[in-house]
Amino acid sequence: MTLSDLCVPDNPQRRRGLVWAASACWMATHLSGQASSMTDMSSEGIDLVFPRLADTGNAVPLQARIRAPEGTFLKSLRIILPENPNPLALQLKLHGEPQSYQLNTRLRLAASQSVWVVAAFSNGTERANSAPTVITSTACLDDS
Amino acid sequence: MSSPILTRLAFAGPLTAGATVEARWSAAHPMDSGFRVDDSGRKIPRNIIHTVKVLLNEQLILEAELGTAMTSPVYLAFPMQVPAGGGVVRVLWMDDAGQAGETTQRLVV
To answer: For residues B74-87, b (16+ Cβ closer than 10 Å) or e, as one string?
Structure first.
């Protein structure tokens, strides 16, 4: 599944948020255009723990475990939710030169989607992995 | 706006020099995303914690930029290596309303 597939507003629940979806699409395209597309990146060394099904999008726990390639360390980390009105959920800059990293956090999801974690390493390479989830109600619209 | 925000910082793992512990930070901030409306239909302005900085013994170890997808309360848990002799961990944050705060916790080895 590619990002553009994810952006197709095929879900009737989301039609009210079309403007946002469109901007999310633009952002996602924009973000993925920064380097090579994150869908093309290797997912080696990135493990995600993310529930396959969540009752609401209000607080979905995410665990990301990252192992840097041999001889490098982790420099930065981005968490992207392509279907959210603001897709960039979290951006971390690490100064401790860690070779492995484990991040736990909780995210708000506007719709069922895949969370993307993009890791940048000290040798300039980037790796990305995604994990899908299905949610049954949204955290971003009052009248949903 | 300027009601105090309760924050918490705790460590999980072996508190021995050189070991890696998980630092768990949370803040009871409303994290208004800017997409919701109040009872009278007015938009609630965006007010989220947008920047978090973590210092271990006054050395910056982590900078985080948060988006509207972070939950309320905010929760971040990240690894940290315990220095010999322990130290002080400070988590600094700032929100869209200009409110800033700090959570300080001692790492006792």
So the answer is: bbbbbbbebeeeeb
Q: Which of B47, B62, B72, B80 to probe by mutation at the A interface, max A CB count within 10 Å? A: B62
Per residue in B75-84, pLDDT (tens digit) is 999 999 999 9
Sheet order of strands, A60-67 included: A46-49, A60-67, A100-107, B74-81, B20-27, B7-12
B7-18: per-residue pLDDT in tens?
999 999 999 999
For B30-77, the pLDDT digits (tens) are: 999 999 999 999 999 999 999 999 999 999 999 999 999 999 999 999
Chain B contact for A49 (CB, 8 A cutoff): no
Of B22, B77, B80, the CB nearest to A105: B77
* Predicted model pTM: 0.81
A142 and B42 Cβ atoms separated by less than 8 Å: no
Task: Compare CB distances from A95 to B62, B66, B77 and report the shortest one's residue.
Answer: B62
Handedness of CA B15, B16, B22, B23 (dihedral sign): positive
ipTM score of complex: 0.91
Report d(CA B99, CA B4) in Å as an integer: 9
